[in-house]
Design brief:
About 30% of the residues lie in helices and about 10% in strands. By secondary structure, it is an alpha+beta fold.
Length: about 150
């Protein structure tokens, strides 16, 4: 069984299909950007993109991604290690403080910008409402998404 994670084909063994996806990503694939914040799908710290849609990895099984295209925060940067423009906008806007929520915020914003490259501040806030941040107050995050939106047009 195959899937595509961060642009790389991955063979999934049949004995892995019932594993929790977040644990699989973190422990088997060493993709630790998705965090276990709440374990019940309400904080957004474990957000990944499946077919460009934000999904909570803590609520999924490995079988849910078979044959799907998956993007984690590790797949956002360029092969040379330079940050994606959205990631750089988060840095530049001061939208990264403790960093725990950042991967989920970035991926959720990326999904929004792929669908709507010129969102309003209200649309950004609506898209990000399922991702909790205890540090930034969200304004810097919204500013970062607005700044990065020019790269999606």
């Amino acid at each position: 069984m195959m899937t595509l994670i961060n642009g790389k084909r991955l063979e999934i063994n049949s004995d892995e299909t019932d594993l929790n996806l977040l644990d699989f990503l973190r422990e088997r694939l060493d993709l630790t950007g998705a965090k276990n914040g709440c374990g019940i799908g309400v904080c957004g710290a474990c957000t990944i993109l499946v077919e460009d849609e934000p999904k909570r990895a803590c609520l999924m099984k490995v079988q849910d991604i078979i044959g799907q295209k998956v993007l984690t925060i590790e797949g956002m940067a360029s092969p040379d290690g330079s940050l994606h423009p959205l990631q750089q906008a988060f840095v530049d806007a001061g939208a990264i403080q403790c960093g725990f929520c950042t991967p989920g915020m970035v991926l959720t914003a990326h999904a929004l910008l792929l669908k709507n490259p010129q969102p309003t501040r209200g649309q950004i806030r609506e898209a990000l409402k399922g991702n909790l941040c205890r540090c930034t107050g969200y304004q810097q995050i919204v500013d970062a998404v607005i700044t990065a939106s020019k790269h999606y047009i």
